[in-house]
Specification:
Elements lengths: L1 H13 L22 E16 L5 E12 L2 E5 L4 E14 L2 E21 L2 E12 L14 H4 L5 E13 L7 E13 L6 E12 L4 E12 L12 E14 L3 E14 L1 E14 L1
Antiparallel strand pairs: 1-2, 1-3, 1-13, 2-4, 3-4, 4-5, 5-6, 6-7, 7-8, 8-9, 9-10, 10-11, 11-12, 12-13
Organism: Legionella pneumophila
Keywords: Signal
Protein name: Transporter
Length: 280
């Protein structure tokens, strides 16, 4: 009984969108229960007034700003299969050039649980990014806009995920979870292919209504772009966030910030965000 309860708790808090950059949109290893779902409405403001060169030198450049709204939906189609859909709407500007607010891309796919035991799960995920807008933007010699342009790639992301967790006290008022992921992102519109390695740690407390999270995201280029104008970057990002379930297991609000720590050939950005969660 205790193991079953803990497992349900971890699933509830572990079916997480990492809510980071739209270009690295991802989820944790856990799946949604059959015929149950999760909707997250995300709003984010990204600003980058510095960029890293190909050699990793940090320089000042014209500020790149992007405002995004990207709803995210997961649905348990089968007992081991969760479907994923996430359209991304945004507007961005730099040096007097501006892209109006509209649909940028749609990410869709699925995640399948390969193995489950107690509160641990090992799963595989396949997603496809369908861009609604194409074309270049900005100056590739000051590559802050690479943050946005990766969304204009047709790409396939093949990912393996492992999640685990447990109770920190006998009454399960405090639980923890961890998620480790690795993926290969094949870009089919000219950008370099990418390897993603991500880590997420979470702590749920205060009677199951408050969650503290810390995520680290790592992108490594395979250095094979079609030409120098396409995204070809490395990036390390840290993201702390807090989730408060004002209706336990039903509705929540999330606040956080994404901060780039180091990279090459991409802007150094900061992106505060807010999200509303609803389980159905």
């Amino acid at each position: 009984m205790q193991v079953k309860l803990i497992k349900n708790v971890i699933r509830t808090w572990g079916s997480l969108l990492s809510l980071i950059l739209p270009l690295t949109l991802q989820a944790a290893a856990w799946i949604q229960p059959k015929e149950k779902g999760l909707v997250i409405g995300n709003a984010q403001q990204y600003t980058s007034c510095q960029y890293w060169t190909k050699q990793g030198e940090l320089k000042h450049g014209p500020c790149f700003r992007q405002s995004s709204i990207y709803p995210y939906v997961e649905y348990g189609a089968l007992s081991k299969l969760t479907l994923i859909l996430s359209p991304n709407f945004n507007t961005f500007s730099q040096s007097g050039e501006r892209v109006p607010f509209s649909l940028e891309n749609v990410l869709f796919g699925g995640r399948y649980a390969l193995w489950e035991k107690d509160w641990s799960v090992f799963s595989a995920q396949l997603t496809y990014n369908l861009p609604a807008r194409t074309g270049s933007f900005g100056n590739p010699l000051t590559p802050s806009s690479a943050y946005a342009l990766i969304n204009r790639q047709h790409f396939i992301d093949v990912r393996v995920l492992y999640g685990t967790g447990g109770a920190l006290d006998k009454k399960q008022n405090n639980t923890w979870y961890a998620d480790i992921e690795g993926s290969y992102q094949a870009n089919m519109s000219g950008a370099a292919d990418e390897i993603h390695c991500n880590l997420m740690l979470g702590w749920k407390t205060w009677g199951g209504t408050l969650v503290f999270e810390l995520q680290e995201l790592n992108v490594f280029t395979l250095n094979n772009p079609r030409n120098f104008t396409f995204p070809n970057y490395n990036l390390v990002t840290l993201m702390p966030d807090i989730i408060y379930w004002y209706k336990p297991d039903k509705a929540a609000i999330q606040l956080g910030v994404s901060q780039d720590l180091y990279g090459t050939n991409i802007g150094k950005g900061t992106a505060p965000f807010v999200a509303l969660w609803w389980r159905f």
